[in-house]
């Protein structure tokens, strides 16, 4: 009988949820959903000096915003230190680990000797089979695992294949420090075992750790979970991902106006693929996700591709749903707080009516808000440099004629009726439509770029539109 799949995401709360961590969480979440299993969340907060409550809160908030939920309460690794110590001592009783009383001076001498002989620095095992009765009274011991000295440890990885590690390179590593606190290597194994984790999906920077952790699993007689080590994300130039490439916290992507669905889609495609499919719904990804389809090579982060994917999701959203998401995101967008203060029922209705035109031009919520600025502008409008230039000279006379033509449009005010009126006016005065539409756009929005000018007229309504045109003429 197949066991229920249990994955886990285990971030360290020493900073924000960065984009690589978000992708790891997504892969764990997708595989759990795909198999009808569960994803657990463990906060690896054993580094008490660097771990903060604020970082933990940022990680939970980032996961929640991305729509990646987890089963049960988050587990604190630091809160399980007694259990970790219990297993370290159990390994000593089993003869699989031992107390090591080597002093710091002795360890430094070992390192110096190894370097002088051109060898990697390794603990030499001097307390491995020594009688504890010889222990010095003034040294608090660590506990080290008795790593196998011959042969190799093989990690059967679902992404990387069979990865072989010569045991001579793994040495007798520490699992419990002299102050009785566990090392990361021990804590991870104990927690994954106790939490019932069946599949470990994490970055391939943990591949060497997997060999050491496999030794602990076997020493305890525990089943080794399925391992899947995914390549890291690189920048477009192939270098390690840095802030200039996009190695930012998830909250930064929210502030840039990316949609959770758009970012999920893009992150899923960073190192995993399903044929030639680029645009995927969350349901698609859950249905298609298999660990074996993860690429072995590093993925390259590309903001232009992210924007393209995000724009597709943005345009595909229902207007009412998109409006709700935009309003919820306003506190995080530049200038969004000021818009939120002025978003009364009337402006909300105007914004909803404007969305079909707005979203065709936008790739992010930030761009959407930028092109919607005209809805929240107070009269008289302030004009940017290009718009002000458009309204000089003969343009004011053109604008006055356009205003008269629009005043003739009565209560049947719409994009179609205002367009018909302006087209008739342009023909009468012998102007191309653009020669009338451009100053009209500047008068209505204060800028030279906006959604279609007749859509703007329709959304603003008759009174506001004529008022703004009159202000520009004056």
From TrEMBL:
BP GO terms, sorted: glutamyl-tRNA aminoacylation
Residues annotated for ATP binding in this entry: 243
Matches recorded under InterPro entries: aa-tRNA-synth_I_cd-bd (IPR045462), aa-tRNA-synth_I_codon-bd_sub2 (IPR020751), aa-tRNA-synth_I_CS (IPR001412), aa_tRNA-synth_I_cd-bd_sf (IPR008925), Glu-tRNA-ligase_bac/mito (IPR004527), Glu/Gln-tRNA-synth (IPR000924), Glu/Gln-tRNA-synth_Ib_cat-dom (IPR020058), GluQ/Sye (IPR049940)
Catalysis performed (reactions): tRNA(Glu) + L-glutamate + ATP = L-glutamyl-tRNA(Glu) + AMP + diphosphate
Basic and acidic residues: compositionally biased ranges: 111-133
Ranges in a coiled coil: none
Signal peptide: none
Cellular component, GO, one term: cytosol
Record-annotated Glutamyl/glutaminyl-tRNA synthetase class Ib catalytic domain positions: 5-307
Keyword field: Aminoacyl-tRNA synthetase, ATP-binding, Cytoplasm, Ligase, Nucleotide-binding, Protein biosynthesis
EC number: 6.1.1.17
GO molecular function: ATP binding; glutamate-tRNA ligase activity; tRNA binding; zinc ion binding
Region of interest (Disordered), residue spans: 111-135
PROSITE patterns: AA_TRNA_LIGASE_I
Locus of motif 'HIGH' region: 11-21
Span of the annotated motif 'KMSKS' region: 240-244
Locations listed in the record: Cytoplasm
Segments forming domain Aminoacyl-tRNA synthetase class I anticodon-binding: 333-473
Subunit structure of this chain's protein: Monomer.
NCBIfam families on file: gltX_bact (TIGR00464)
Family, similarity comment: Belongs to the class-I aminoacyl-tRNA synthetase family. Glutamate--tRNA ligase type 1 subfamily.
Function: Catalyzes the attachment of glutamate to tRNA(Glu) in a two-step reaction: glutamate is first activated by ATP to form Glu-AMP and then transferred to the acceptor end of tRNA(Glu).
Protein's UniProt name: Glutamate--tRNA ligase
